[in-house]
UniProtKB/TrEMBL annotation:
NCBIfam families: D-hydantoinase. It comes from the Bacteria. Residues 49-437 form the Amidohydrolase-related domain. Its EC number is 3.5.2.2. The lineage of its organism: Bacteria, Bacillati, Bacillota, Bacilli, Bacillales. GO terms for cellular component: cytosol. It is an enzyme of class 3 (hydrolase). Belongs to the metallo-dependent hydrolases superfamily. Hydantoinase/dihydropyrimidinase family. This is Dihydropyrimidinase. The modification N6-carboxylysine is found at residue 150. InterPro entries: Amidohydro-rel, Hydantoinase/dihydroPyrase, Metal-dep_hydrolase_composite, Metal_Hydrolase, Metallo-dep_Hydrolases_sf.
Length: 475
């Protein structure tokens, strides 16, 4: 049945206006004022914002890491995402050294296919360059529409790739129209600092931060940008935490390089002192790169506002405190890295950004939905409210004040990283391709209803936009 969303304040990355949206066959069919459609179900959105569904370009669901597996899988993770206003995720498909890339992609399809309740795509994590990898990559990019490749410069002896691998991936990305994503930290030096700290008996969670100093994130970011320049390629730096890394991205962008950056909600609202919480509670706040000194938060907000950073991903990678984070009780380096963020990304950015006057409402939409869709080959199908786009819509009540908590969240994990934080605004109803997944704050979706997204190549949208009309055509 068609749906008519009436009288909401429609917000895109460019505009804010009161209007109606007619949804037909999962797509936005019409936008106007005073629209009528006798056969359509009327959805009253008066007093609410009508946002495009959030696009989260950085999630780890059902992922093995640090000797365990993330608590949230594609079912609980995407349900939580939907409650939080996110309708599209791009998850990281973990490849294994020496094994075909296609095996990893099939594993990720098996993890997600009958579980996801929102739409999803995959990035491919690549940690080695072999003849087989080089042969297989173009096929994966073409057939699977996986047009982003992730390289780790940290996690020595586990996921870390060397500079040659990063450079080669940048070359492949240039040739194939893909975007290289990089976890930028100097893994070799960090490995040394960790061994030094442990040898001195420094085992508590705070040493996770102290052995991964900001200067090593800045150094790796600058190195990745330099290799991008050499390869004349494109780079997206994930989870930027600090001024040192922002400066390197800004410098690269000033030179005209295609270098982009993402930060995450945790780096905008939490800081290094959280790792000092007693009774091992600091382990809940172990991310890599780590939470930084508080003054970095303002640098990140400024960078989002002025366009030095483009997007905010959740980096959802959840582990229970009990039994999982506790693996590192005697050794901080064994604490599984990551936290539960998929559900609160959208609301935290609205509340801390728009409500507190740090971001305009249009900039918020850009950061939370539009920029990610553009960079990862999904725009304008995803990330905006426009005629012909998927009807992925969040009806958001800005008047609600609520407290984030593990008691009320929908992730499976046993703690909330933002426990006790007050936020303004709440996604009330969420639609994916015109179907309610969340309706009046209740889950009404169906596991398996999320669709896999075959993404376009990097830069394809721009190429299509300037395509010449056929000779003799009217154009
Ligand atoms: N960020 C983090 O600590 N865990 C997830 C894996 C990664 O993105 O590095
Ligand atoms: Zn990472
Ligand atoms: Zn991550």
């Amino acid at each position: 049945m068609r749906k008519l969303i009436k009288s909401g304040t429609i917000v895109t990355a460019a505009d804010t206006y009161i209007g109606d949206i007619l949804i037909d066959n999962g797509l936005i069919a019409m936008i106007g004022i005073g629209l009528n459609a006798n056969d359509a179900e009327i959805v009253d959105a008066s007093g609410c914002y009508v946002f495009p569904g959030g696009v989260d370009p950085h999630t780890h669901l059902d992922m093995p890491f640090g000797g365990t597996v993330t608590r949230d899988d594609f079912e609980s993770g995407t349900i939580a995402a939907a409650f939080g206003g996110t309708t599209t995720i791009v998850d990281f498909c973990l490849t294994a050294k020496g094994k075909p890339l296609a095996d990893a992609v099939q594993t990720w399809h098996a993890k997600s296919g009958d579980k996801a309740v929102i739409d999803y795509g995959f990035h491919l994590m690549v940690s080695e360059v072999t003849d087989d990898v080089l042969l297989e990559l173009p096929r994966i990019i073409e057939e699977e529409g996986i047009t982003s490749l992730k390289v780790f410069m940290a996690y020595k002896n586990v996921l870390q790739a060397d500079d040659g691998t990063l450079y080669r991936m940048l070359q492949v990305a240039k040739e194939q129209g893909a975007l290289v994503m990089v976890h930028a930290e100097n893994g070799d030096v960090i490995d040394y600092l960790i061994r030094e700290a442990l040898a001195a008996g420094n085992t508590a969670p705070i040493y996770h931060a102290l052995t991964r100093p900001a200067v090593l994130e800045g150094e790796a970011t600058g190195r990745a940008a330099a290799l991008t320049e050499l390869a004349d390629s494109q780079l997206y730096v994930v989870h930027v935490t600090c001024a040192e890394a922002v400066w390197k991205i800004a410098e690269a962008r000033k030179k005209g390089l295609r270098v982009y950056g993402e930060t995450c909600p945790q780096y905008l609202v939490l800081d290094q002192t959280d790792l000092e919480k007693p009774d091992f509670e600091g382990a809940k706040y172990v991310w890599s790169p780590p939470l930084r000194e508080k003054w970095n938060q303002q640098v990140l907000w400024d960078a989002l506002w002025n366009g030095q950073l483009q997007a905010v991903g959740s980096d959802q990678c959840s582990f229970d405190f009990k039994g999982q984070k506790e693996l590192g009780i005697d050794d901080f380096s064994k604490i599984p890295n990551g936290g539960p963020t998929i559900e609160d990304r959208f609301s935290l950015l609205y509340s801390e950004g728009v409500h507190k006057g740090r971001l305009s409402i249009n900039k918020f939409v850009d950061i939370i939905a539009t920029a990610g869709a553009k960079l990862f080959g999904l725009f304008p199908q995803k990330g905006t409210i426009a005629i012909g786009s998927d009807a992925d819509i969040v009806i958001f009540d800005p008047s609600v004040e609520r407290t984030l908590s593990a008691e009320t969240h929908h992730m499976k994990v046993d703690y909330n990283a933002f426990e006790g934080m007050q936020v303004f605004g709440e996604p009330v109803s969420v639609l994916v391709r015109g179907e309610f997944v969340i309706r009046d704050r209740a889950f009404v979706g169906k596991p398996g209803s999320g669709r896999y997204l075959h993404r376009r190549r990097f830069g394809d949208a721009e190429k299509q936009a300037v395509k010449k009309p056929p000779a003799g055509g009217s154009g």
